[in-house]
Amino acid sequence: MNMADLGFFQYDVFISYRHRPLDDAVAVKAFHTLESYKMPKALARQGYAGVARVFRDTEELAVSGILSDTIQRALHTTRTLLVICSPDTPQSEWVDREVATFIELGRADHIFALLIGGDADTSFPKSLKKVPDIDDRTLDVRADGQKQVLANLPGGLLPVIAQCAGCTAAALQTADRLRRTARSTLRYGLGTVGVVLVVAIAGWLWMLAGEYRQQAVNQQATTMDLIETLTYDLPTSLAEVPGTYGIVSTLLAENVGQINTILEMATNPDTVQREKAINLRRLADTYAVLGNHTTAVASAEESADLFRALYQRLNTSAALADYTESLSALGNTLSAGGDYQQAEACFEEAVTLQATIACESDTAQTNLGRYYHNRATNLVQTGATREAVEMELESVHIYEALMTKGVTSVRANLLIALQNIGSSYNRLGEYTLAIGYLQQALEITRQQYEANPSRFTLGQVADSTALMAYNYYRSGQLDQANQYYEETIAHREYLAEDKENQTAQADLAAVYGNYGVRLNTFEDYDAAREYFEKALAIYRQQAAAGTPAAMATYARACYNIAENELDAGRLDDARAYYNTCLEVYGQVAEGLGDYHNSQYLARRAYYKIVFTQDFEDALADAQAAIDLMSDTTVINLVYAYALMYNDRYDESMAVFHTLIDRGESDRQNIREDFRTLRALGLEHPTMADVEALL
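Request: output the structure for the sequence above.
Response:
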């Protein structure tokens, strides 16, 4: 009994051919084509695995007339025989013996003839001519010249692959045709990007899907393969091309409509419903990038509702994982628009539910880490900075444990968590801790960009350098800060060339604003104003959408210019920018939560100190701000000044001591503010005692 009798096959395909130049070239190409072929996802999902291993004899057989032991073993343990046939083939006794052996093994119906020249009469060895129905398994790749013969091989070999996989040749040819058509169309579309062209391409692909929908039920998997192409491949590729987010939103919205049509005739509606929910989630992300917050929230909520319904119906871990992902995505969308309280509810539920399945896989653990991170990012916006650090440390522990197990795919998640912790410690004035985390993050981002240069990985580098710059500035290490600011600005200006990408625009504005603060520190007020105004122009355009978060950011940008103009002695300009800041911020601050409300109250208190000298009202505002948020530097500074001008010496000195102990950045802020206050005629005896501590 041989190994094949026991059900053991070592090879999927044995390539039999005569060693001649064209035959050799075809054998080599066939070998690599068969072993490297990846089954279309539509068939792979059904369990069809394709070709795993191919045997190709690289030497001419000996003159003995006996097949070698190696050849005999290979033939006995091979499922399918592929005979390369040319006019030279019939002269090879060894090819004929290999065919005869395969027939003797009872596998004549697993023999294929690959015709590369001549015809069946002139190119088939005699044993091959005896194989029943061989005409049905003759693969014709003949052409004028070797180059074209080789080009015909990938399509010509599909019936061999189908037999090895166990599916029909027709099913594989259909799925392969769709995949090749979609890929070539996407390449063409991305090379000549335009709204009309890309949407037309998508429409043509959907028409192709319609053709498959009208075929047998078993073609619906092929239709779903196309849905994935339109949901993932094209939008993801387009996102790397500046100015195409509008195209992506159009494409994804069209997908939702087409999927509704497929749902009416689908044999597995849950699968199609899931694709619809995924499309809506991606559509929400795209609308958010475009600055269309209301539509983004609506799409994200509809996606979450669909995933919730699927989980309630299926009650599986996979369905729960989809639902928690949709909750986290909805939380991100809400948070981006300033709805931090609703976002917190989404993140809390996502973390709680994901924790119940986190032990099931590395992927589930990774997702739990991401949800902790997303929750931490939102908590920072509410002012709960220390709670945010606790959440982010949970994600770091998860990612580090996975990295120890060899799950290197979480490296990107780890770096974002490290950035967030560093940024949070920066807010808290704990600069040494911040630098430690940020340096780890920067090292990872640079490695990732070198390994995979793209707009996304460059953005991650810019995130890290921006945080390093700001932290060095806050800690008083100005030379290092300047170095990182220059690098960050170069990266952000390049990424912001995509004017449609509002996220990139906001990132550029943020670094302009921070660099303006740095220039202000060096008393270069004109240059600082130039950068502040660059930032303000971007924020003004984004605030026009009317979202509370964008309006708050615009208001704070006005405050930066007001502070700069005050330092420069341009009081009329300073007053005008302060008034704009307070007018806009006052409309949205309370609704955005404690953090923004406290920031608004502190700025209003400072305005009353500087411009109206209404010190009692200023202290009331500063006290309200400190009651809401006691850790923030700007609030403590204003509170200390309000106490000082109300002649509450001991209390003001206690706050000044706390600020001075935090580090050089806060000490420098006090020096600069005292200089400005004196220039305005607001000298106070307490200043001398504070300066003695500086």
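The beta strands are 11-16, 54-56, 78-85, 111-115, 138-140.
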